[in-house]
């Protein structure tokens, strides 16, 4: 019987959670030398040059000793460290540049998505997470997005305290810092909190086209259910889940464990995929898709209606909400993974 993701209940250790704070396999080989700016969009070349200079600046700075990091070395650093913020649409190379920065900086540094950091704080507690991250020269935050006011206040506080301790912070997002929260929360004190965080960053805008060609109307390729189930039996490392059972399982597993949940998975198979109407289900699915995409795991899907294209994974209400950019990114990534999965079937390929 083919194993299911819904049967997995990982319990990663603290060491595992920290060890996962590195660039994902999809971007393991990304370097500044391999980033090729589009001549039609000069901002890409400008961002590459600025990231190179930022890396050199960090590499030339020396942090304090152990007593300083423990807060026992007397006066704290008077001036907060500055950060860099890469803003732009999907698929323009922001993650490639952020990963390149990570690899260009010597010494200790960490890399994770916004969600991975909030999950880390949830798992360890704020102070313990801060103590761990403050040992780094550089903290890279990919896909800075707002799920709720609590997460944003948590992350802005984390960034301020890391910056106060001399830790450089680099982040990417699809929204300028000053606009974070617009269309989601209207509280003035909340917006002031975001603005104080934005002052810590130099903003670099990167223009260009999404290489995955996401235009807001992504069609996710679907296959007959029998073909999906049959392919799941063809190789080691494959998993097979019904969509509804998987959604129910994701609600019982902390998102910080989704990465461990897909350890050693070579191909994921989903049957009965249908439209999602709940933000809770959708946001958890987004995290899972991100982890699958990071690890380049092909996905084979069959649609609940039996069609060959899954046109409406997220409801119109969800796509019109404040989380729409998160959902559109998920559609783009899942469409790419489903294309990879369908190609395996056509080629008669073993998922392992």
Automatic annotation (TrEMBL):
It comes from Brachybacterium epidermidis. This is Cell division protein ZapE. GO terms for biological process: cell division. It holds the Pfam family AFG1_ATPase. The keyword Cytoplasm does not apply. The keyword Heme does not apply. InterPro entries: ATPase_AFG1-like (IPR005654), P-loop_NTPase (IPR027417). It comes from the Bacteria. Keywords: ATP-binding, Cell cycle, Cell division, Nucleotide-binding.
